[in-house]
Structures are given as C-alpha cells and as structure tokens.
Amino acid sequence: MKKISTLFTAIVLTLTFLLTGCGTEPAAQNSASVSDSEKTATSYPLTVKNYTKAEGAAEWQEKTIIFEQAPERIVATTRTAAEFLIHLGLADKIVGVGGVFGKPDESVSQEFNKLKNLGKSYITKEVAMSVNPDFVFGRGGLFDNADWGVGTVDALNQMGINTYVMESSVPGGTFDSIYKDIETIGKIFGVPEKAQEFSAELKGRQEKVQNALKVIKQDKTFAYIHSSEPESLSVYAAYNDTFFSDMFKMLKLKNVFEKEQGEISVEALIEQNPNILVTLHWDTEGEAATQKDENATIKNIMTNPKLESLDAVKNKQVFVANYNHLFGYSYQTLDGVEKLAKELYPELFK
After folding, report:
1. What CA–CA distance (Å, rounded) separates 155 from 125?
2. pLDDT value at residue 4
3. With 283 labelled, which of 44, 104, 131, 300 sits at a CA distance of 20 to 30 A?
4. Could you tell me the pTM of the whole model?
5. In terms of C-beta density within 10 A (0-12 exposed, 13-18 middle, 19 or more buried), how is residue 29 classed?
6. DSSP state, 211?
7. What angle do the packed helices 192-212 and 333-344 form, to 10 degrees?
8. CATH 3.90.420.10: does it fit domain 25-208?
9. String of DSSP letters for 291-336
10. What's the average model confidence in pLDDT over 327-344?
C-alpha cells in the first residue's frame, strides 16, 4: 500500500496544483465543442475548441485544434480513457494505453485486453511516442512534461500530434462534461450515432439514480480520506476539483473541505466531524497490487485510533470507492455513483 499510496499522494498534489488558483472555468465557458448543426456528419478539416496549459502554468487556456482527417493511431493516457474510446467503437485505432490499473469496465474488457499495454503506471512522453501516435487522448493532468506525463498539449501539437484534453478533467468540469466529450470525440472520428447511443445509455443510468434520491431532502456531509494508514493518514480537500465534487453532489453529499486549500489535518477532520467518510480502494494488477479487499480497507478506517471519535466511525458510515471511479474523470464515475448510492441508501434500491 505504501508504494501505491506514495504515488497517489504525488499525483493528487500535482492535480491539486493544476486545479488550484484557476480564475476561469474553461469547461463552463466552452461547453459547446461542436454546433448542433454539425452533430450528424463530419466534414474535414474539422475545427475543435479544446485546452492547453503551458508548462508550469496554473490555468488552462482555450486552444483550437484542427483535424485534417480522423486520427488513426490513438494513445489513451489511462484505462478509463481507453474504455471511453472503446464504447465509441474505436478500439481498432488505439495503439497503446497507459495507466492500466484500477477497476475495469467488464462490458468492454474483451476489447481492452487486446490493446497494447504501455504501462501499469502513468506513462512518459517517450513511452507514448514509442507507438507513433497521431492523437493523444485523456485527462488534463497527464498532459505535462513530467515523469508521469505524456508532454504538454503545445509540445505534442508542434510534433504534428493532435490532442484532446477531456473537458471533465479541467476546472469547471462536471459529470455533464462527459456528454460533451462524447459528442466531440464522436464528431472527430465521424461516429456521431455511436456517441449519441452511448450518451443516451449513460443519461438513463444517471437519471435512474437521481430519481431514486429525490426523496432525500437533507444533504449529508462527507470527507474523503485518500490514505488510511495510521502513520500517514491524509485527507484530500478536493479544492477546485469540480468533477470530483459533482460526483458526490449527485449522491446528496457535501464535502466539508470543498473550499479548503492545502493539507487538511486530522484535527480539522475531527473538528468538522462529517456524517460520512469515503476512502480509496486500489484495485491494481501484477506487482503493483495492494489492498484488494474492500472490507479490509474499511477496517483500516474503523480501527484507526486517530479517527475513533468521529461520528462516521461510531455509526459505521465508512464507504470505499475505486480509484478509477473517483479520479478517472470519465464515465466510469457513474459506476461509483451507483455503487455508493446503493450502499448509502439501500432501502431506495430494493
């Protein structure tokens, strides 16, 4: 757990830096990636509004990306990004996928398992370039010149490689941003019908959960613990992580640290005393495998002496979410919403 927890902590700190201090909300401002009149057909060259962030910068900026034709060689930066593309019928165009960890989407596992696995951890630019892509797709935080990044958007574009930063993964993104990402990718690859079909399926599932929870009139409070080990207990505030927060809003949960920046102390957690605690479940593969038992993960919280005074512990209101559901910034978040909704309110899903 320590190896994975350390990696995750580094990624969370990096993600927090990327999301903090953004005075604008690109996703909210640029929600229409393609016009309604363009939904049924693709004409090239195609102009798409997306995002870029200079190395070391804090804010994402709008950038126009021009596609002379549909890309043929895609690198997906994570499992969740690759599974997204598979649902749109694009598996045969994916030449490599990085970040192959976390809970898989079993509905596309057969296609996913045929893809070239570029690494169980986040991949570097050199690894991504080793398969000669003409398109890199995924989460915003991974477009960086770092050991865990595939290179900045501008650097890749200068190499003649088109990019798409998922709108859900930049400040201002919400779960509804997923539908815009699906629509835009459907347009880029000329598969609008597949995109519409996938969106309709997700919207139906989302509506079912939200309708079931309409009877909940009072939101509960929660805090998210991303490391439950007694010696390294840490809380992720999720400041400006709008997609993360939107997931829990669907569950009628309010993050007690949503407006807090920086490290959250155990003392602050005890003072806030949230109704519910959510912690992280790693479901990884091979040598990176750690805790795969959700009950054991919950037990780490329930038996942690630092947390014994919390109402959530006393009332056994501790729940586990998978990494890909919390930090995949993709449609798989809905899997996590469905799971947590049934655990929080089992009486509503009989």
Report:
1. 10
2. 42
3. 131
4. 0.86
5. exposed
6. H
7. 20
8. no
9. ---HHHHHHHHHT-GGGTT-HHHHTT-EEEEEHHHHHS-STTHHHH
10. 97
